[in-house]
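1st attempt posting a full record on here, be nice pls
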Amino acid sequence: MVINKNTTMKKTFRHFMEILINLSNGALLSIWMGATFGFAIFYWLMAHYMPEHGPTIIAHSTSSWEAFGNSLYFSIITATSTGYGDIVPIGFSKFLASIQSIISLSTFAILITKLVSRNQDVALQQVQRLTSEESLHNLFEEFFLIRKDCDRFMQEIDEHNIMSAQHWNDLLMAYERFQAFFSEVPSFYTEAVHFYSIDSRREKVLIEAVRRTLHRMTLLLQTMDRRTVDWKTHEDHMKKFLELLETTKRTFVHWQENIPEERSGSLKEIEESIQKLQSFTSN
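the predicted structure (as tokens):
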């Protein structure tokens, strides 16, 4: 029986705390102020009608206004757990002061915790936003470097009708880099991941960067075909190129799913660029 009673009390207390936690900051502050003012009235009435149970000094005040002022003062220092010691509860007022301390400190603690938690969430979102913007900047820079690599490869092919072993390795690495960074694109549309959603201005730059990079890869393959560089029989290259195509097509589908419907038409040129790359495998 005692166990059931304790369990019931714990559930009641837990339910009460859940109610407090779910209240707004304004409601919590109102409860704290209301409790402080309400207990001040209790102390004042007790000092007036039962002086032997009222806090000291209050019962000996010369006027009702002075008595209420002292009661409010005692209630405030009790609610804030200051306790200067100039007014001391006696008799039944000890019980009231204890109850007030529990209610006021619990309410105040929950209010402070929620304020700190909110500030932490805001700070976390700001950090995530800055991190996402930095990632986006790195992505732009990496796509630019890949295009510069393609230009370097095309220049060598035009001049010597051949690609050196080092440049073949660099090209394979460029394919790897493109896959790694292009795979991040859909995540910039998912706030649950980054607490950040790409704005329309940066989106235009992103789409153009991807389009130009895919177009530069297409030009590179066309240059290889024109200069009879047999890239299709280069086993490592063909393997990486097919991996790039698969990753690019899969990521593009995710991009289409995440981009707002009213802006999905802006991906048309990228889709066409992917189809051009795909066409090289069927020739």
